[in-house]
Write a structure and sequence with these properties.
This protein is an alpha/beta fold. Helix content is 42%, strand content 23%.
């Protein structure tokens, strides 16, 4: 049984269909790539899965329960979390404070506990601080824990966005262009981290990314969409030789770079 399944999922804005009758299965432990040309509907698909947009038609089944139409915070509570983009970081908070915000998304510290600073609250805060330190170390951010997010190099900011999502304790992690703006050395390091996230945290990962070389190296299975419709699905080797994919996406020098 699929951990997450999209069944005939569609999303329209006015009369324009951004996603059309999309069927996709994501299984436990997958690193799945979702690719396609600009405007193909990849980011919209993520936004529907995470509750930013309600589906126009179809179902989103997570652990065999239809979550389509739930609010983003409800979906995050169920265990589907999207990586935080640069503009969603808190720039004047430190790296540690940003990660702690992610941890508080799943924290059991209640309102009254936080208000009166009970002993129970202090113990939980200590545990959260320890967990934040572990995540920062895992993501290579430990040395920057007291640095304001806005002062981080670009690659570290991307890593912080993933660290915040990881702190929310997801079951499925949706990574939206995690390699954008990175140099080759940073790309290689991030690919290594993503693999370790899957293996060490036992997570399922879906990646939207334009760096085709990286996608082919990272993902075990790839879904290709164009104009909101799935045109191919398979292994990297199958996708690279698929006629419709070559025509829609891989055939131009610009997109193949």
């Amino acid at each position: 049984m699929a951990l997450l399944e999209l069944k005939n999922l569609s999303k329209s804005f006015g009369g324009l269909a951004a996603v059309s009758s999309l069927n996709m299965e994501i299984h436990q432990g997958d690193i799945l790539g979702l690719i396609g040309p600009n405007g193909a509907g990849k980011t919209t698909t993520f936004s529907v899965i995470t509750g930013d947009f309600a589906p126009t038609e179809g179902e989103i089944l997570f652990e065999d329960r239809n979550i389509g139409g739930l609010q983003p915070h409800q979906i995050a509570r169920h265990g589907i979390v999207r990586s935080f983009q640069l503009n969603t970081l808190f720039p004047h908070l430190t790296v540690k404070e940003n990660v702690l915000l992610g941890l508080h998304m799943q924290s059991t510290i209640g309102f009254w506990e936080g208000l009166i600073n009970t002993g129970s609250n202090r113990r939980k805060e200590t545990a959260l601080s320890k967990k934040a330190a572990e995540i920062m170390d895992f993501m290579g951010l430990a040395a920057s824990s007291d640095e304001e997010a806005l002062n981080l190099p670009h690659g570290h900011q991307r890593a912080l966005g993933i660290a915040i999502a990881l702190a929310a304790q997801p079951k499925i992690l949706l990574l939206d262009e995690p390699l954008t703006g990175m140099n080759p050395k940073e790309v290689d390091r991030m690919l290594e981290i993503i693999r370790k996230i899957r293996d060490d945290y036992n997570l399922t990962i879906v990646v939207v990314e334009h760096n085709m070389k990286a996608v082919m190296a990272l993902c075990e299975r790839i879904v290709v969409i164009n104009f909101g419709r799935k045109i191919a699905e398979g292994t990297p080797e199958e996708i690279q030789s698929h006629k419709d994919v070559i025509e829609a996406y891989l055939g131009s020098d610009e997109n193949a770079a």
